[in-house]
Design brief:
This protein is 80% helix and 0% strand. It is mainly alpha-helical. The relative contact order is 0.19.
Length: 220
């Protein structure tokens, strides 16, 4: 993988990933210091995000060059989101949040900006650009989950989150998309656009955790 396309993409966001691991939201999951209110806000926003992420995965799959890749993204859109929404439902109950209230919540500015960028990228760009845009959510969550799995958390709710994203099954799905990325046949110009999408959505991953930590609201 050292000389692969994906390795270059990951190397290009190494500073962003380091900033994610150092963010107080992520460190707070491990040591239990994350304010409960921030976690509650994040869980609701993430549930809203996943609905649009599922649409983005389906859109990428619809443009795949072969049926195997179409099936993979369709399976991920159904499987990953179903598993994660199940986690959110159990967490909502534990946190005492009414699912109806969560369903009607307004997207925070960062969440809306991220999903809008994702959907625009996967519908207006090439298949490769779509892959590049959706990959950071897979890859960064798998890496953060693996990182936190070695540390654990004293808070059972945070531990449940860590168990989900640190699971080998979640990592397997990320590796499937990484493998697809390495097989992309793209022009130099398209490769540059893929790198840009990957970098932008990686930044949005940091911003999403920061949004949750700050419980971001609209300024006006």
């Amino acid at each position: 993988m050292a000389d692969s396309f994906s390795a270059g993409l990951w190397q290009g966001v190494s500073g962003i990933y380091a900033a994610i691991l150092a963010h107080p939201f992520v460190t707070g999951l491990a040591d239990g210091s994350l304010p409960r209110e921030s976690f509650e806000f994040y869980v609701v926003q993430d549930a809203l995000y996943l609905r649009k992420y599922a649409r983005a995965l389906a859109a990428v799959g619809s443009r795949a060059p072969d049926t195997a890749q179409t099936e993979m993204f369709a399976r991920h859109a159904a499987g990953i989101v179903a598993a994660e929404l199940s986690l959110h439902e159990s967490l909502l109950a534990d946190l005492g949040i009414d699912p109806a209230t969560a369903d009607s919540a307004e997207e925070a500015p960062t969440s809306l900006a991220y999903t809008s960028y994702l959907l625009a990228s996967v519908t207006s760009g090439t298949y490769g650009e779509g892959v590049g845009a959706v990959l950071p959510c897979y890859w960064i969550y798998a890496e953060v989950g693996k990182h936190l799995a070695g540390r654990g958390s004293p808070d059972p709710r945070y531990q449940r989150w860590i168990d989900t994203y640190g699971a080998e099954e979640f990592g397997d799905e990320a590796r499937e998309v990484i493998a697809v990325t390495d097989k992309l046949d793209v022009t130099p110009a398209e490769r540059t656009r893929i790198e840009e999408h990957f970098r932008v959505t990686s930044r949005y991953e940091w911003m999403f955790w920061d949004m949750g930590y700050r419980r971001e609201t609209w300024p006006v």
